[in-house]
Amino acid sequence: MTETPETDEIRGTAQGTAPVPLSVLDLVTVGAGRTATQALRTSVEIARLAEARGFHRYWVAEHHSMPGVASSSPAVILAHLAAHTDRIRLGSGGVMLPNHAPLVIAEQFGTLEAMAPGRIDLGLGRAPGTDGATAAALRRTQRLGEGADDFPEQLAELVRFLDDDFPDGHPYARIHAVPGPVQATSPGGVQSPHRPPVWLLGSSGFSARLAGVLGLPFAFAHHFSAQNTIPALDLYRESFRPSAVLDAPYALIGVAAIAADEEREARRQVLAAALSMVRLRTGRPGLVPTPEEAEAYEFSPMEREFVGSWNANVIHGTADEVRAGLDDLQKRTGADELMITGNAHSGDVRLRSCELIADAYGLTGNRAAQA
């Protein structure tokens, strides 16, 4: 099958000595004593660094009702990042489709595509990205199971809006997502040849199988569901059917990784992030604590067990140690792309981690672009 323009917008090219393309997943984490404004400024700095050094894409994840995560509105953040970058791909990792009307997502990402032509990815998930009560507030219904169960139908509707190709007689045949293809068919209309590639995201087998059957690219959340990574990727590859989008499977995995100048400092940062997860999992979400607070915290035996399990899947240490961990993970999973997320209290730590990983792989990119 001949590669299409969309395929080129999906597959990346490995840079430096990296085994596969490297990308960044941003949760816009907010540390104790810091503001969302500072966190968003850090996101701009990291996106510019990632672009300058040759990372392939930069995604933002949708989360709600979490004080330490300021990424509740990916489309808004992506518009901001688009204004401060020139080449790096930008996208959602992901937008939680059941939380939104498909037409609204098509309009938002059509607008982003108009702002940054040929640079926008639309990653979609079926989880709420929050707790049940918040999901009910988002969706204005208590029937939360419906959204997940109807995901394939919602996805099909969204793609129809993106392509503006509802069949005659369909209730939505005269409804158009704007900006979008309808502008090219209007008198005097000219429309961009691009439309955001759709990715499916998942942490289990459901989206893996669906992405394979539909011939779509797949992103797996290894950073919080490591035990399911290889089974899900195997299922995706086994289920894959060539499509107009892809002629072969393409899967990236999200990887939690923090590099620091000293191994001890990396451990301190990872412990702080783990304490934040302990609080989230026990119904006490808050800002990301400082390493000093985490070191002084008295973990219960159950909490300590959770921290050990959680941190076992966070690649951390010096730049060389992180590079070795990423290389090993890529070999074990066969992932086509690694998307690195580094949660830490300080934005400076996140920025330095990205820089050290780039150095470890000899990613030179175009450093002048960051100036």
Strand content range: 5-15%
Shape: globular
Q: Structural class of the secondary elements?
A: alpha/beta
Continuous helix count? 15
Enumerate the spans where pLDDT stays under 50 for 5 or more consecutive residues: 1-6
Distance between the termini: 41 Å
Query: Which sequence of SSEs, written as H and E, runs from N to C?
Result: HEHEHEHEHHHHEHEHEHHHEHEH
**Largest sheet strand order:** 1-2-3-4-5-6-7-9
Rg from C-alpha positions? Answer: 20 Å
- On the 0-100 scale, what is the average pLDDT? 91
Biggest sheet: strands, sense, closure?
A: 8 strands, parallel, barrel
> Considering DSSP H and I runs of 4 or more, what fraction of the residues is helical?
40-55%
Oligomer: single chain
Number of beta-strand segments? 9
